[in-house]
Amino acid sequence: MMVSGILILIFWANTSVVMMWTGNIILGAGFSSVYASMYAFLEHQFQVTNTIGSIFVFAGGLTCALSPSLVGQYIEANPLILIWFNLLCVTLCVLIFVSIHVTICTKNRQKRVKISEMNGEDVVIKKVLP
Fold this sequence. Notes:
Layout: H1 2-12, H2 17-32, H3 34-45, H4 50-72, H5 81-118
Helix pairs in contact: 1-2, 1-5
Transmembrane segments: 54-75, 81-104
Keywords: Membrane, Transmembrane, Transmembrane helix
């Protein structure tokens, strides 16, 4: 949803008010679940302690505090800076999700091979579809 919202904004926000509203609504709906889903995913992978939870909340708060300062300096001279900043944020979110997914898939594959070796079984790596 975030990628489709930002693409709508990049191509049509400068020429159509309806498309600007549509892109912002879709982008907002996409961004709304990122924080909660990342926290749930983090909790699913390992035990979240008070320290880890505090770091997670601090990082989210710091991002919310710094982004208006970064964008606010340039928005009068170049109003599209907000769209490009959102593109940067969407790109970072996608890259982080992909890197986490690849890391976890690699670790799970290594665990399966180690378990097979410990049981004395012949190690046959099969391609597992997601």
